[in-house]
Amino acid sequence: MTGGTGYLGRRLIRALAGREHVVRALVRPGSESKLPPPARAVRGDALHGLSYAAQVAPADTFVHLVGVSHPSPRKAQDFLRIDLASTEAAVAAASTAGVQHFIYVSVAHPAPTMQAYVAARMQGERLLRESGLPATILRPWYVLGPGHWWPVVLLPAYWTAELLPGPRETARRLGLVTIGQMIRALVHAIEEPVAGLRILDVPHIRRIP
């Protein structure tokens, strides 16, 4: 796993530990203490696949969670420098290691805002498709959770839009999901691998028990 010390990664490691999965997670040297137990730290640089590629095997699943925190339009260059570059490195490392299933958190699209972020994530999806790796791509729009609750004020507008034929599809595609729903979706993707390519968009993420 990359991004194991992040917002999704820490929670996913704890969920997987409770289900007896063995997790190894990439960390920068000096950040080992930020990794939740019992995950084992793999030291390396997420932007440079050669720094950790030899340590990926014998993993059967690669979960890529690296990304710029608190995305905003002013971070457009960071999306290329971090999000896209780390995805390119991860896909290459997973391919070299013979990983059987790659899990990538992308973003819902098309969308009227955050164009640079969406573009970087779509390029990441393209890299994954071109690699030929069996993969699951998750496409949330905004993940509600600790420190990320402000969009709840938009819920009445979402509910209204989903009742109307015109904006219904957009409201569902760009709907809000909770951190719990995302973790359940990630666990499901790990435990139910696919041989080809699977897309889990917002409605799918919400439905996973």
Describe the structure.
- By secondary structure, the protein is of the alpha/beta class.
- The protein has a single domain, classed as Rossmann fold.
- It contains 7 helices and 8 strands.
- The strands form 3 sheets. The protein has a 4-stranded parallel β-sheet with strand order 3-4-5-8, sandwiched between helices. A two-stranded parallel sheet has the order 1-2.
- Strand 3, helix 2 (76-97) and strand 4 (101-105) form a beta-alpha-beta unit.
- It is globular.
- The protein starts with 6 loop residues before the first helix and ends with a helix.
- The model has no long low-confidence stretch (mean pLDDT 95).
Break the fold down into its secondary structure elements and pairings:
Blueprint: H1 7-17, E1 24-27, E2 40-43, E3 61-64, H2 76-97, E4 101-105, H3 115-131, E5 135-139, E6 142-144, H4 155-163, H5 165-173, E7 176-178, H6 179-191, E8 197-201, H7 202-207
Parallel strand pairs: 1-2, 3-4, 4-5, 5-8, 6-7
Helix pairs in contact: 1-6, 2-3, 4-5
Characteristics:
single chain; 209 residues; alpha/beta; Rossmann fold; 4-stranded parallel sheet; two-stranded parallel sheet; 7 helices; globular
- Strand numbers in spatial order across the main sheet: 3-4-5-8
**Beta-strand level of the residues, as a percent range?**
15-25%
Task: Identify the CATH architecture.
Answer: 3-Layer(aba) Sandwich
Oligomerization: single chain
First CA to last CA: what distance? 23 Å
Reading the helices and strands in chain order gives HEEEHEHEEHHEHEH
Number of strands: 8
CATH topology: Rossmann fold
Range of helix content: 40-55%
Shape: globular
Number of helical stretches of at least 4 residues:
7
Within CATH, the superfamily carries the name NAD(P)-binding Rossmann-like Domain
Q: What's the main sheet like?
A: 4 strands, parallel
Query: What's the level 1 CATH class?
Result: Alpha Beta
- As a whole number of angstroms, the C-alpha radius of gyration is 17 Å
Unreliable segments (pLDDT under 50, ≥5 consecutive)?
none
